[in-house]
Amino acid sequence: MMKEDRRNRKRKRGKRxxxxxxxxxxxxxDDASFAKHKSGxxxxxxxxxxKTISKPNKTSSFIDKMRARLxxxxxxxxxxxxxxxxxxxxxxxxxxxxxxxxVYHAGYxxxxxxxxxxxxxxxIKWLKDHDPSFVVADFGCGDARLSRSxxxxxxxxxxxxxxxSVIACDMSDTPLGSSSVDVAVFCxxxxxxxxxxxxxxxxxxxxxxxxxxxxxxxxxxxxxxxGADPVKFVKAxxxxxxxxxxxxxxxxxxxxxxxxxxxxxxxxxxxxDWPELKPxxxxxx
Length: 285
Ligand code: SAH
What we know:
Blueprint: H1 2-22, H2 30-40, H3 42-50, H4 58-84, H5 87-96, H6 99-112, H7 119-128, E1 135-139, H8 145-149, E2 153-158, E3 166-168, E4 181-187, H9 195-205, E5 206-217, H10 230-239, E6 242-248, E7 254-261
Parallel strand pairs: 1-2, 1-4, 2-3, 4-5
Antiparallel strand pairs: 5-7, 6-7
The protein binds S-adenosyl-L-homocysteine (SAH).
């Protein structure tokens, strides 16, 4: 009896003793505290994110969790920034700290891995089903997966170029020639508050009859969730000098809109009533 009591006490002490090492209380408000941290010194965060722990133990799993929280919070912060500033501001933001681009894309890929279909694959399939001699401009190419997956000549454009084939610029002002491409792709990339100027630039570089392919986050074009009216959006794009060819709302996560550039230029001087596209805020996972 006495022995049994002692064993029980030992077991209880053991459990209590292990607890703090196994799961210390998580830091609260990770996004906010990260934002403070970030504005002071982004490299220390990157250092924490890239630090390698050789022995997998309970401490390392806590550090892994912390690291995932930090990079998740960091991703959402950069994402919000890109949706709430203009393209040239976004270009300067990444110029000041190009590492942010890698943090953004690690988070972006993590989010995409939870989507049943990835819109970039739909774009790739479309290109494979059409003329391989079509010259393509991929506006906001990200990791340039599209160009690696098709036979076409692709001009990949993004704010940062970690790959020599990617043209680093703000996509409202690209170095591409006028009427030089057959297909302009915007795959989840109408991010800046000046997004109409990206569609205007695509109109400049597209040949008459050229294709404009847009995939955009569904909630941004769903009035039921506070998004823009898709009819208004399509009307505005058409007024820029395009004809609407496809409106596909069948996917749960994104809408697909295809247009063709009209042969004739739009009437000059007419104000286009562009709907505001709300930021897409990704869920914490
Ligand atoms: N199209 C890719 C990446 C989508 S993420 C895919 O589907 O996988 C959106 C991309 O658009 C990001 O890489 C972001 O840097 C880019 N982007 C946003 N605004 C931009 C701008 N003004 N000029 C160039 N690229 C931009």
